[in-house]
Amino acid sequence: MKKPALIMTNLLMFVITSLIALVLVPLEAISHGFDTVEIVTTIVLIYFTGMSITAGYHRLWSHKAYDANPVVKVILALGGAMAIQNSILHWASDHRVHHKHVDENDKDPYSAKKGLWYAHIGWMLREYQATRYADYSNCRDLQKDKVVMWQHNHYLAIMLIMNFGVPIALGALNGDMWGMFLLAGVFRLVVVHHVTFFINSLAHFWGRQPYTDKNTARDNGILAFFTFGEGYHNFHHIFEYDYRNGVKWWQFDPTKWLIRGLAYVGLTRNLRRCPEERIAKAQAEMQLKKVQAKVAMLPDAEGLMQSIQHEYDLLMHKLTEFYATKKRLLEIKKKRLKRSYERLELDFKYRELKYNLALQRQKWLAVHQLAYAH
Ligand SMILES: [Zn+2]
Ligand SMILES: [Zn+2]
User: Fold this and answer.
1) Helix (H) or strand (E) holding 68
2) What is the reported pTM?
3) End-to-end CA distance of the chain
4) What is the separation of C-alpha 100 from the centre of its chain, rounded to a whole number of angstroms?
5) Does residue 84 have a pLDDT over 90?
6) How many A from CA of 200 to the centre of ligand 1?
7) Most buried residue, 11, 89, 107, 136, by CB count within 10 Å?
């Protein structure tokens, strides 16, 4: 089958910016050197533009995982344009299709099933989805967002000002326009391009699947480090409306920290979280699947299989009970019934269930150890 036509604008942009980053930037470093201001500006702009994509394009606009103050939106729209990944409207439209039809080669715009190169950058080099963007019908909500439409309608101008105007102006302030343009302009752009593209490529190939195996998305702490927290992509594909990708407090997710930090000062609100109960159950379900597959390979493991199922059923039951009680306790606390009898009773029940759940988790772990010891 004949391949669709090349998109020359994209191809030239990727080739020229990569050549500058790989050839001119090292040459400049050797011949002239970069000063601290240039290096720090570049790092700041890597985070600013990268997180405009992850916190803005991705979690705010594509998934509506939280609401943001208009000033925050404008800043994210500017930073997103500086990352040169098309307008918010276009990006979000692609991304919503990616989630809805993940891994379906004929629908998912960056389907990982078409290979690492395709998911990383290949999909942008040819007119693979030329027919799709007549009306952005999966983003009607975003078409009502003034910031989104302003950025979409003036995308080219904003993108050019942010990528040429800003670095050159900063360079003028620092006394070297060319050096700042090379490092904070072009080198920064190429870095942010590839680390954000990793989310579509590597994060669908490399890592663990603790929450679901219904798609190719993976959780990977190393990738999370380079992708502003989006390496926890397995979690993200099952609980896409959660403002967090790294759901555990210790998981490296600066995008989540930014969103929560802004909430403290009132600039973001309505941060959406998936109920803990669903997360815990998804995890247990995946553990069951994996251990069952392992035990199915063992000879005469009928008894072990039965005890695994038994412990799993108990675990699910205890999770349900625990979270139902936790919810009721929170409701009572909200009503500020400080010393009511019901609250005391619930408090006691909650602690008891928590303890029981921890014991059950230990038993669940023990049957796993039995299975994996063979
Ligand atoms: Zn994905
Ligand atoms: Zn997403």
Assistant:
1) strand 67-68
2) 0.93
3) 49
4) 15
5) yes
6) 5
7) 89
